[in-house]
Amino acid sequence: MAVAIYTTNSCPYCRMAKDYFRQKGVAFTEYNVETDPRRANEMVRKSGQTGVPVIDINGKIIVGFDRSEIDKALS
User: Fold this and answer.
1) Pairing of strands 29-32, 3-7
2) Angle of the 67-74 helix axis to the 12-24 helix axis, nearest 10
3) What is the pTM of this model?
4) Is 18 within 8 Å of 11 (Cβ atoms)?
5) Whether residue 1 has pLDDT greater than 90
6) Which of 36, 39, 67, 72 has a Cα at 20 to 30 A from 60?
7) Do 64 and 53 form a contact (C-beta atoms < 8 A)?
C-alpha cells in the first residue's frame, strides 16, 4: 500500500494525520510542501487544493484529516 502525506511545518492536522498513521502501524512518505516546491505543485495537481494535509492512499486523494475517509481508503 502506498501512502503519501503532503504537509507543512505548522499544520496541526498534518501532525494529527501522521500520528494516526503511526497508531495504526501504517507506513507513509511525508512530503513537506513548504520546503519542496516540486512536491507542492504535485499536491495541487493531484488534489486541486493548496491546503494541507493532502493524503494520497493508493491514488485516493483525501484533503484534510478525515478519519472515516482514511479508514475507508486503507481497507
Assistant:
1) parallel
2) 40
3) 0.94
4) no
5) no
6) 36
7) yes
What CATH number is attached to the domain comprising 61?
3.40.30.10
- 50 by DSSP, 3-state: which? coil
Contact 52, 6 (CB under 8 A): yes
Q: How many domains does the chain have?
A: 1
Please say whether the beta carbons of 8 and 34 come within 8 A. yes
List C-alpha distances in Å: 27 to 17, 19, 22, 44, 69.
12, 11, 7, 23, 17
Q: Can you list the positions of beta strands (E) in 10-75?
A: 29-32, 54-57, 60-63
3 membership: H or E segment, kind and range: strand 3-7
For 9-57, write each residue's pLDDT tens digit. 999 999 999 999 999 999 999 999 999 999 999 999 999 999 999 999 9
Cell numbers found for residue 24: 495504526
